[in-house]
Amino acid sequence: MTIRVIIVDDQAMVRAGFAALLAAQPDIDVVGDAADGRQGVELSRRAHPDVVLMDVRMPEMDGLEAARRLLDPPPGVVHRPKVLMLTTFDVDDYVYEALRAGASGFLLKDAPPADLIAAVRVVAAGEALLAPSVTRRLIADFAARPAPRRNRSVRLNGLTPRETEVLELIARGLSNQEIAARLVLAEQTVKTHIGRVLAKLSLRDRAQAVIFAYESGLVTPGE
């Protein structure tokens, strides 16, 4: 199945370079590009892409607002693409807000070409582009500017003790393999637990699970 992609970036050379790279892949079809967030939202509503590559900082409408509009569309708009944020910064406040809004991850603009291609495929498959190493950077950022501790979310009450344990380990940056070793479980069992956690908490992916664990009070930076 071909992955339909649009590219939203205010730099024409970036759009052209990414389009040429992705269009050369047999399983990826670049169906359009836009120079700002507003145009990107309009194009997405017309073209129905599977994945939107979205720059963070743009004129007219930035990538964060555009991502919000795509991922929480008005009544009557059914299509919701996966959104992959593009940034020139390793840690970017806008990216955290985008993850909270439901973006599937972020990618540095200077990442190797193979990483961009892999990222599109990963996100199109419904996974979060948030490797454990990136998760650990998220955690480090939370620790550097801790928010006031909140009461534990009542949504956590719907999880079993094992599911709660798995969620905590995800938030601490462990991979599925590391969680399996820590809990003496098969890796497939860990994947099953993660799927149930996401379903019960109505979370899109691993990225949102990490943020939820911190914002719900399950995990506190520095613990």
From TrEMBL:
| One of the record's GO molecular function terms | DNA binding
Protein's organism:
Streptomyces cinnamoneus
Gene3D superfamilies the record matches: 3.40.50.2300
Q: Which UniProt keywords apply?
A: DNA-binding, Phosphoprotein, Transcription, Transcription regulation
Domain Response regulatory per the UniProt entry, residue ranges: 4-124
Question: Which residues does the record list as 4-aspartylphosphate (modified residue)?
Answer: D55
Q: Where is the HTH luxR-type domain?
A: 152-217
- Organism domain of life: Bacteria
User: Quick one: a GO biological-process term for this protein?
Assistant: regulation of DNA-templated transcription
Pfam families, A to Z: GerE, Response_reg
Q: Tell me which SMART domains the record gives.
A: HTH_LUXR, REC
This chain belongs to the protein called DNA-binding response regulator
